[in-house]
Amino acid sequence: MTTRILPTDGEHLASSLLAAATLLREGKLVAFPTETVYGLGANALDEAAVRRVYEVKGRPLDNPMIVHVHDQAQARELMQVVPAYFEELVNEYWPGPLTLIVTHNAAVPDVVTAGLATVAVRLPDHRITRELLRQAGVPVAAPSANVSGRPSPTDARTVYDDLQGRIEAVLDGGSCHVGIESTVLDLTSAVPTILRPGTVTREDLEDVLQTHVAEAGADAARPLSPGMKYRHYAPRADLLVLPLRDDVAMREALTEAIAVSAASGRRVGLLAPERFRGCGEHTFSSLRDGTSVDYARHLYAGLRALDDAGVEVMYCPAIESVGIGTAVMNRLGKAGRVVG
Ligand code: AMP
Ligand code: MG
Hints:
Layout: E1 4-7, H1 13-25, E2 30-32, E3 39-43, H2 47-57, E4 66-68, H3 72-76, H4 86-93, E5 98-103, H5 110-113, E6 118-122, H6 127-136, E7 140-141, H7 156-163, E8 169-172, E9 183-186, E10 193-196, H8 202-209, E11 214-215, E12 238-242, H9 247-263, E13 268-272, E14 283-286, H10 292-308, E15 313-317, H11 324-335, E16 337-338
Parallel strand pairs: 1-8, 2-8, 4-6, 5-9, 10-11, 12-15, 12-16, 13-14, 13-15
Antiparallel strand pairs: 2-3, 3-7, 4-7, 5-6, 9-10
Helix pairs in contact: 1-6, 10-11
Bound molecules: adenosine monophosphate (AMP) and magnesium ion.
């Protein structure tokens, strides 16, 4: 199979949208941009199509998918009951990087939800993709458009590199501006519970809902969000995260760690804010000013770029685990390990 890259600039947009929407309706697989990362989409109501998504990604069948909708009404068509807080959250955050877990009705095939009574729904904040979803006219099940375990793709080229020959098309909508996956919030538990941290933070949600929002601990007896138990987001090289400290101490720690690795003959990469560039001999990938938004936006692309440069070990300074930093540290912890 040849994978088509569908451009979305100027004159190409209309024909690319029509081609992508038609493919989805026919049960084919189309990768598409969102504000978070690229998704690999299939008609959520077509069991065979959804099954193929698991196959091409090598995704475990017990890891359910997020269903993408083009408006709130389409989400409601999939739901058994509208849970408390749904309306307020949707009004505040949709379109946006907030996925809601709700109970589903018989319209949703088991393969989408891995047999759970609940389904994850989201309305992405991306002009082109909302139009794609509208034209497709069906809800679209889509996990991130990478081979399972690899960092999620944040541009069309990366999707193509991972999945070419295995999917029908990639809709090229440029780079994703959020860069990490959506916040997943469970609305079916007694207390709204964050199953996966993202750029919509616990503080944001508590402000809007004026109620306590829980965070599912990594040590919960059973992983509430099935996907969270898997190794994830990982580059090929070892990723070592240096714990938080002030800039002077961080420069010293990075310089020393890089020197030790280089002395043992390993090719070293550094994924860090600009101000840490040049802490010894390494390939550098920039996290710009090093705000939590910069970390999120450039993290996965940076991990992939350093892999492509052939480094064997990469270092990254930790950031404070508050607000969006919580989501960034969650991804860094799964992609690598915190050392020293
Ligand atoms: P991905 O689309 O690959 O970023 O993964 C979607 C995330 O949402 C995974 O962590 C899934 O386990 C989680 N998820 C999807 N559906 C559900 C659900 N019904 N209940 C809990 N978590 C879910
Ligand atoms: Mg994923």
